[in-house]
């Protein structure tokens, strides 16, 4: 079995890896400003070598990236994290910090009651093999179906019972985030899409979150991998896109202004990366964690192949010249408008049509 022990010094050379930046997501709960995403381990992004995936989480933890995003609806991912933590415990090492989710099925919304929410949380505890969940991020597919606040309050009750340490949400807009807070649900975080392509959180959620103590955990940072040299100068992809993230973020690229606008953005990022000796993905991630109200970027991957360029984010500061390179492209392309996750809530719309709504039973 692969050992998950902390990294041993590889040589007598000084370690040039920049120190991982961390932040308090809640009092007493510290996370790195890059959280590793887990959707890419759920099978919709190509086959996953489970043993390799578990072992390579160890490389992230050893590098200081000890926090992962997961979900009740990411098939097999909670159990994979649970296996990792069981091995950590066996080695006497600190467990991984896991941010999971509570996403009741769309078709069940009208029937969701306290027992339903409790079942999801108990199942996460069991799969993760822990007595208390670090963070549970709540989602509700349809505001028109009553029950959202009641479900969030059940999670708050589970928190008071000690089964959940911290509560967050995912994909709520600003009014619904505020409504949960006003109802006494102590959200510390909201997980939303926030990237150079999709800057909707800056409109309303960030100012409200700064005021009410809700920090953002951001996905879409790399647009599912589009923010990389691989796509610079490449022809616009069609139906051949290889995974669900790329399909999702191609729509966001279309909203940004299409493929030629995206290429202009990639060229600007490449120019900035060349100034600093890093790649496009590193610049795109730095931009996200530099935004006000952002606690961390969530960066997805199956293995540790990109770990070095992820860690390079912490050695980088964007300067005035970098921002001057980005500014004209961003000004010309404001991207999706309105509040967070509003376009996506239209189930018949282009974003809504590609989603899977009933994964909890799986
Ligand atoms: N709440 C929600 O609705 C929601 C929605 C989407 C995602 N998420 C969360 O956010 C996480 C991120 O997912 P995402 O879909 O937004 O994808 P993303 O993080 O924007 O992109 C992930 C992809 O980028 C590639 N990548 C990672 N680091 C790279 C680097 N340094 N250079 C080049 N490519 C790199 C990975 O490639 P490899 O495949 O080669 O590793 C992976 O396929 C998910 O895992 C999930 O935890 C949440």
Key phrases:
two-stranded antiparallel ribbon; 362 residues; alpha/beta; single chain; eight-stranded parallel beta sheet; binds NADP nicotinamide-adenine-dinucleotide phosphate
Outline the secondary-structure elements.
Blueprint: E1 22-26, E2 29-32, E3 34-37, H1 50-62, E4 67-69, H2 77-90, E5 97-102, H3 114-128, E6 133-138, H4 148-160, E7 164-170, H5 174-182, E8 187-193, H6 205-212, E9 215-219, H7 244-256, H8 259-276, H9 280-289, E10 294-300, H10 307-311, H11 320-332, H12 350-353
Parallel strand pairs: 3-10, 4-5, 5-6, 6-7, 7-8, 8-9, 9-10
Antiparallel strand pairs: 1-2
Helix pairs in contact: 1-2, 2-3, 3-4, 5-6, 8-9, 8-11
The chain binds NADP nicotinamide-adenine-dinucleotide phosphate.
NADP nicotinamide-adenine-dinucleotide phosphate is lined by residues 37-40, 45, 69, 170-171, 191, 219-225, 228, 245, 281, 298-302, 305-306, 309-310.
| Approximate strand percentage | 5-15%
The main β sheet shows up as: 8 strands, parallel
> How much helical structure, as a percent, in the residues?
25-40%
Q: What is the 3D shape?
A: globular
* Distinct ligands, ions and cofactors found in the model: NADP nicotinamide-adenine-dinucleotide phosphate
Short description:
37% of the residues lie in helices and 15% in strands. It has helices at 50-62, 77-90, 114-128, 148-160, 174-182, 205-212, 244-256, 259-276, 280-289, 307-311, 320-332, 350-353, and strands at 22-26, 29-32, 34-37, 67-69, 97-102, 133-138, 164-170, 187-193, 215-219, 294-300. A hairpin with a 2-residue loop joins strand 1 and strand 2.
């Amino acid at each position: 079995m692969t050992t998950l022990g902390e990294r041993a010094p590889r040589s007598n050379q000084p370690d040039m890896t920049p120190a991982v930046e961390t932040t308090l997501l809640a009092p007493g709960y510290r996370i790195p400003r890059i959280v590793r995403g887990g959707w890419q381990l759920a099978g919709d992004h190509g086959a996953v070598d489970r043993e390799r995936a578990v072992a390579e989480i160890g490389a992230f933890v050893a590098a200081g990236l000890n926090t992962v995003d997961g979900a009740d609806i990411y098939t097999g991912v909670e159990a994979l994290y649970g296996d990792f933590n069981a091995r950590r415990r066996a080695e006497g090492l600190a467990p991984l910090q896991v941010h999971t989710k509570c996403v009741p099925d769309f078709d069940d919304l009208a029937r969701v009651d306290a027992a339903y929410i409790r079942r999801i949380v108990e199942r996460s505890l069991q799969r993760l093999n822990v007595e208390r969940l670090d963070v549970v991020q709540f989602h509700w597919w349809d505001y028109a179906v009553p029950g959202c606040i009641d479900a969030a309050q059940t999670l708050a009750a589970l928190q008071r019972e000690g089964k959940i340490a911290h509560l967050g949400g995912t994909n709520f807009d600003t009014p619904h985030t505020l409504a949960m807070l006003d109802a006494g649900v102590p959200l510390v975080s909201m997980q939303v899409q926030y990237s150079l392509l999709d800057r909707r959180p800056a409109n309303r959620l960030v100012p409200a979150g700064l005021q009410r103590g809700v920090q953002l955990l951001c996905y879409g940072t790399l647009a599912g991998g589009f923010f990389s040299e691989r796509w610079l100068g490449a022809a616009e992809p069609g139906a051949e896109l290889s995974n669900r993230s790329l399909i999702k973020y191609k729509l966001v690229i279309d909203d940004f202004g299409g493929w030629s606008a995206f290429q202009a953005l990639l060229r600007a990022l490449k120019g900035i990366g060349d100034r600093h000796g890093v790649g496009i993905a590193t610049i795109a991630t730095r931009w996200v964690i530099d935004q006000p109200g952002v606690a961390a970027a969530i960066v997805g991957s199956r293995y540790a192949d990109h770990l070095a360029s992820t860690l390079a984010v912490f050695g980088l500061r964007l300067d005035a010249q970098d921002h001057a390179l980005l500014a004209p492209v961003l000004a010309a392309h404001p991207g999706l408008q309105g509040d967070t996750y509003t376009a996506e809530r239209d189930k018949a719309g282009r974003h809504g049509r590609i989603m899977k709504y009933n994964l909890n039973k799986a």
